[in-house]
Design goal:
There is one protein chain. The chain folds into 3 domains: 50 residues, no CATH class; 149 residues, P-loop containing nucleotide triphosphate hydrolases (Rossmann fold), CATH 3.40.50.300; 87 residues, no CATH class. The protein has a 6-stranded mixed sheet, covered by helices on one side. The chain has a 5-stranded antiparallel sheet with strand order 7-10-14-13-16, with no helix packed on it. It is of the alpha+beta class. Helix 5 packs across helix 6. The longest helix has 13 residues. The model has no long low-confidence stretch (mean pLDDT 94). The protein contains 6 helices and 16 strands. It is globular and about 65 Å long. Helix content is 20%, strand content 27%. The N and C termini lie far apart (53 Å). It binds guanosine-5'-diphosphate and magnesium ion. Guanosine-5'-diphosphate binds next to helix 6.
Length: 313
C-alpha cells in the first residue's frame, strides 16, 4: 500500500533521494515524514530545489474537487495577479485573509471588506490569524452552521494554509501528525486529507507566484511609512527606484521596508501613469499607496511584478 508523508503529502519512496517523498529504506516502516520534512522540522533547513508548481494544472484539479474552497491569502499579497487565480476557482468558495495579527493595526476590517468588494467584486471575505483561537473557532462554526463537511484550503504558497489546519487540529485536540510549515515557498507538495469529526479537510500545494524573493518577517506587525515626494524626487526601496512626476504623498505597505530618498541620477526603464489614490502592487513585497495623479518612472524591477488598482485604503 502506498504511504504518504504526513507533513507535505508526497508519496513516500526509498528509490531516489533527489525526488520528493524520499525516506531511507530502514526508516520506511516506522516513520510518517519524508527526509525533507524531517530535516525541516528538526533542523530548519528546507530543500525544495526540484519542486515546480503548475498553476493551470492545480486550478484544474481544484475545480474538479467538489469541496468548499477557502482561498487563503495575506493582505500584502492581494493584487490583480493573485485575485486572477481566485477568480479562476469555481464556487463555492470564500476569501480568507490570513496573518491578520500582522495587519490589524493598520486596516479597519469592515472598510477593507467594502473596498475589496468594490474593487475585486469579492463578497464572501473574512480574516484569520493562527494567533487568535477565536478566529479559528469562528471558521469551524461557519462550517458547522452552513453544514459544510468537505473543505479544501487553497491559495498562493506561503499564505498560511497548513498553519491554519495545524491550529484546527490543535484546538480540537486531534491526535494527528502536524503538517509541515515554513516561511519558504513550496513546503506542501501534494494534497493532504485530514478528518476532524464530520469535517474532511484537504490541504493543497500553493500556487506559484512570480514575485520578489525577500526575507519576510511573520512575527512583527507591519509598519507603514509615508513620504512626501516632490516633483521629480526619487525614492529608493530595496534595490529599485521610483520617480514621481508631481508632488504627492505616498505610503508604503510592505513586508520589508528599507527605503530612502535618493539624490543621484538614474536611468529609468519604464513609466506608469496613475490616477488619484492608486495602489501600486509589487508581487511579494506589498503595495504603495499614491495619493495624487502622476507618472511614475521605475527602475530595476521587472514590469511583470507590478500591477495597479484603485486603492484599498
Ligand atoms: N504572523 C503570522 N504568521 C503566520 C500565520 N499563519 C501562518 N504564518 C506563517 O506563514 C508562513 C507560511 O505558513 P505555511 O502554513 O507553511 O503556508 P502554506 O504554504 O500556505 O501552507 C510560516 O512561516 C507561518 O509561521 C498567522 O496567522 N500569523
Ligand atoms: Mg502548506
Amino acid at each position: 500500500m502506498n504511504k504518504y508523508c504526513s507533513g507535505c503529502g508526497a508519496l513516500l519512496q526509498s528509490d531516489n533521494e533527489l525526488l520528493n517523498g524520499f525516506i531511507p529504506k530502514e526508516k520506511y516502516d516506522n516513520s510518517t515524514y519524508c527526509k525533507r520534512c524531517f530535516r525541516l522540522i528538526n533542523y530548519g533547513d528546507l530543500n525544495n530545489n526540484n519542486i515546480l508548481i503548475n498553476n493551470t494544472k492545480l486550478i484544474n484539479e481544484i475545480n474538479k474537487d467538489k469541496s468548499f474552497k477557502i482561498f487563503i491569502i495575506d493582505l500584502l499579497n492581494i493584487n490583480n495577479n493573485t485575485i486572477n487565480l481566485y477568480n479562476k476557482i469555481k464556487e463555492n468558495k470564500m476569501l480568507l485573509i490570513s496573518k491578520y495579527d500582522l495587519f490589524y493595526k493598520i486596516f479597519n476590517k469592515n472598510k477593507l471588506f467594502n473596498k475589496l468588494n468594490l474593487i475585486y467584486n469579492i463578497k464572501k471575505i473574512d480574516t484569520i490569524s493562527i494567533k487568535n483561537n477565536i478566529d479559528i473557532n469562528k471558521l469551524i462554526n461557519y462550517f458547522k452552521n452552513k453544514k459544510i463537511n468537505n473543505i479544501m484550503f487553497i491559495g498562493p504558497t506561503n499564505s498560511g494554509k497548513s498553519s491554519i489546519i495545524n491550529k484546527i487540529l490543535e484546538i480540537n485536540n486531534i491526535n494527528h501528525d502536524k503538517l509541515t510549515v515554513s516561511n519558504s515557498i513550496n513546503t506542501t507538495i501534494d494534497y493532504i486529507n485530514i478528518k476532524i469529526d464530520n469535517l474532511n479537510i484537504i490541504d493543497s500545494p500553493g500556487f506559484y507566484i512570480n514575485e520578489l524573493t525577500i526575507d519576510k518577517d511573520f512575527k512583527n506587525h507591519i509598519k507603514t511609512i509615508t513620504y512626501n515626494m516632490k516633483k521629480d524626487e526619487i525614492l529608493n526601496i530595496d534595490n529599485f527606484y521610483l520617480k514621481f512626476s508631481n508632488n504627492t504623498s505616498i505610503t508604503l505597505y510592505m513586508y520589508k521596508i528599507d527605503s530612502k530618498k535618493y539624490y543621484k541620477d538614474i536611468k529609468f526603464d519604464y513609466e506608469i501613469s496613475v490616477k488619484d489614490n492608486t495602489d501600486l502592487c509589487i508581487n511579494g513585497l506589498g503595495f504603495i499607496n499614491i495619493k495624487k495623479e502622476c507618472i511614475i518612472s521605475i527602475s530595476n524591477i521587472d514590469k511583470e511584478l507590478i500591477s495597479e488598482r484603485m486603492s484599498i485604503i
